[in-house]
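Side project, low priority. Logging it here so it doesn't get lost.
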Amino acid sequence: MTGGTGGLGVCVARWLVGCGAEHVVLVSRRGAGAVGVEGVRAELEGLGARVSVVACDVADRDGLAG
């Protein structure tokens, strides 16, 4: 999900995992460098999900395709 490391994105990720999502991909411009992302990753993994954190600007088509 885009904006996945921001406040609303984290809430949606929690909801998705609570609904049974096995793997969530959190996409933001900073990726793993976003403030608090390791705590979010640990929380979601603790709930049983696999978590990928990816840095990408979704306005960059080539980067997004990668």
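Brief comment: The mean pLDDT is 92.
Revisit when time allows.
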